[in-house]
Amino acid sequence: MERPRRSLLQNFHDYFFPHAGNDYNPHFFSLASVAVIVLFVLVLEGFYFSDTGFLFKKTDFLAAVLPGVLVSLTNTDRAALNDASVTENAVLDQAATLAAEDMASKGYFAHVSPEGTTPWDWLGKVGYRYRYAGENLAVNFTDSSDVEKAWMASPTHHANIVKPQYTEVGIGVANGLYEGQEATFVVQFFAAPAPASVAQALAAPPPPPSAEAAVNTSVLAAQTAALPTPVIPLKPTLLTRTLASPTESVQDAVLIILALVAALFSLSILTRVHAPHPRVLASGAFLLIVASGALLLNLQSKIHVTLPTDSQSASVISAFQ
Q1: DSSP secondary structure string for all residues of 35-99
Q2: Residue 69 and residue 241: Cα distance in Å, rounded?
């Protein structure tokens, strides 16, 4: 005689809730279910460590993803104060990339390079004429969202992000060594371009140069020709935000698993306090240990954002360059 087919609701009840029909042993705690959950946690951990250990440091992934994410986060913070949004500018991206690559190649982390190059020198090298300009820096992180949070928690960096005079932003990312460790450097330039009349006057052809000036002009032309072409940033989406913030993403997923296991485990114990099913006890305790261990591992391996030790974040307000 054919067995009657069980409804979806009955299967759901058997899977999650303890009752006499499943011997107070929800199928959630079966060996097959536990194996699937543990495998899922291991996949999440694999994603986390491959993202932070390979994608972040060995590829141009952050250069493609981080600018769009940071611009979006910046505009969210500006909107909270009723400031107008800033628009990403490709020339500012070039200046920021030059500054980031200089720090990454030379292993320093400061607004002014060991040779005395200032943030405004990078803007000049790409030919960006500004009326207002400012720079934020960050290094050492595993989550892009942590970069924005660290900047917003720092009074001087916060002031740069929300300054209403700024209308444009550029972001550069480079991988290199910092204090003997592989690190990702982030440079964020804010600016408001000089009025068109000023920019045109500054860009007007100069008088015939002297021999020495001609040499300097040739050097400048060679430097300009060698300007980096920043990686085209991807538009921020749920996927790019998830990939750019692996610790936060994995932590949220594991917390959901931990909360579900804890709730079902508690329900099973309370339903049959006098004699809980042995498999529920063993499987529940094991899953709690696995999920808690994954959370602790991620928190311990997370790298916290480093900001400049300067007493002031680099910022300048001038009539024109």
Answers
A1: HHHHHHHHHHHHHHHHIIIIIHHHSSHHHHHHHHHHHHHHHHHHHHTTPPPPEE-HHHHHHHHHH
A2: 7
Distance CA(278)–CA(98), nearest Å, equals: 62
Task: Let me know: does 188 contact 66? Beta carbons within 8 Å.
Answer: no
pLDDT in tens, 283-317: 999 999 999 999 999 888 888 888 887 656 688 77
Q: What is the pLDDT of residues 247-275, one digit of tens each?
A: 888 999 999 999 999 999 999 999 887 78
Q: DSSP character for 30?
A: S
Tokens linked to 101: 């690559």
Enter the tokens of residue 32: 């097959």
With beta carbons less than 8 A apart as the criterion, state whether 22 and 14 touch: yes
Report yes or no: 51 and 248 within 8 Å, Cβ to Cβ: no
Of the candidates 90, 54, 58, 62, the residue with the CA atom closest to the CA atom of residue 234: 62
Could you tell me which of 167, 150, 148, 154 has the C-alpha nearest to residue 92?
167
- The conformation of residue 292, written as its DSSP 8-state character, comes to H
- H/E stretch holding 271: helix 246-271
Give the torsion sign (CA, 15, 18, 21, 25).
positive
Residue identified by tokens 């400061």 is 110
Give the Cα separation of 253 and 280 in Å (integer): 22
Q: Give the list of residues 6+ apart from residue 200 with CB closer than 8 angstroms, or none.
A: none
| Beta-carbon contacts of residue 78 (< 8 Å; ≥ 6 apart) | 84, 85, 86, 161, 162
Locate tokens 């005689």: which residue? 1
What DSSP designation does 306 have?
Answer: B
% of the chain beyond a pLDDT of 70? 83
* Lateral strand order in the sheet of 87-88: 87-88, 168-178, 181-193, 130-139, 315-317
Locate 303 and state its tokens.
């790298």
Q: Please, where are the H alpha helices in the chain? A: 8-16, 31-50, 56-58, 61-80, 90-106, 119-125, 144-153, 155-162, 196-202, 211-225, 238-244, 246-271, 278-301
| Euclidean distance between CA atoms 269 and 168, whole angstroms | 58
Neighbours of 104 (CB within 10 A): 22
